[in-house]
Amino acid sequence: MASRTDVRFDSGGARCAAYLYRPDADGPAERPAIVMAHGFSATRDERLPAYAERFADAGYVALVFDYRHFGASEGEPRQLLDIGRQHADYRAALAYVRGLDGVDPERVVLWGSSFSGGHVLAVGATDPRVAAVIAQVPYVDSVPTLRKVPLRNLLGITAAGVRDQVGALLGRDAHLIPAVAPPGGFAVMTAPEAEPGFAAIQGPETRWQNGVAARLGLRLPLYRPGRAAARIQAPVLVAVGDEDETTPPEPAAKVAAAAPRGELVRYPVGHFDVYLGEPFERAIADQLEFLGRHVPVAAA
User: Could you confirm whether the keyword Hydrolase appears in this record (predicted)?
Assistant: First the structure.
């Protein structure tokens, strides 16, 4: 069994909370490591430990962190989903892991799922030292993704975003909108799979809150991280759910084709299915196989 410790690292003047997993078995003096964070509004406890434990059991060091403003990390206002800050948090996590004893700083992997599946593409394109990238059911392009959001909700999110942005300029607390709601409700995600999917992946220690600062709605339409894939020189594994109702599968598949060393795996599942049960077992097996080829525990 792997060991887990609670650690913290600095990002932008705030402390990010993280779980650090280390293999218990004997192995090389310096091991590869995997830096992991979750998707839209989620925290480190929403099934990410299941992945990290498997990686550590296979001999990898794994760091699972909460972004600033979320979960156990510092940062005010709470629930502020700032894309640029989340990218910076990934970079700070990379720097932290590269400085750890027992980690090979040239063999650190970026791992992301859903919204963070887009983040790792964007960050991986700007850091040539990244050894590999794993993007699971990734959010790669706002244009096709937002087409799945009902028009009434898009208008409501925009109006709430203006209110929140004006309030921020006036020093008011963040105005939150729900991250998830049932079909017909008001939230960023209202696909039939969204609400039960979030409920299914919440861990016993979760600090997840169903809300994000609405100002994100003014910036989200411009976020197209899949366009960075062509600049990633490291191996990239893109895992797509063909029945995904939250992040469209075809744009993600195109990202795998655009990456110079891209690889694509497809599963007949929805967005949240990949975290649980047999789909999880298939996904983690494919990810470990990919890592074993490109970033093996024992360096060549």
Answer: yes
